[in-house]
Design a protein that fits this description.
By secondary structure, the chain is mainly alpha-helical. The chain is globular.
Length: 94
């Protein structure tokens, strides 16, 4: 029920919502989808130096934000036609 409210409220105001599986978040932050919580926390601290991470939940939230940032940036480049994500991942760019 809480998930439904969390998805409905932004939709009601026309705000986009994104959902990511834990494996996708871990892969975006650590590089492997089977990373442990400690690995995720370590990488979040490395990627966001100077950020005070209060607890594991805060690290998870920041990891989701990092993941969303990567996915959103790739989506924008792809939509603009400026980059083929598959070729970029292989090191080829356009």
């Amino acid at each position: 029920m809480a998930r439904g409210v969390a998805l409905l409220t932004p939709a009601k105001y026309g705000l986009p919502v994104a959902e990511y599986l834990p494996m996708i978040v871990k892969k975006a932050v650590v590089g492997t989808g089977h990373a442990g919580k400690e690995q995720v926390q370590t990488m979040v601290r490395h990627l966001l130096p100077g950020c005070a991470i209060a607890n594991a939940d805060a690290a998870d939230a920041l990891a989701v934000a990092i993941c969303h940032s990567h996915h959103a940036a790739t989506g924008r480049r792809w939509a603009a036609g400026s980059e083929d994500p598959q070729r970029a991942a292989e090191g080829g760019g356009r």
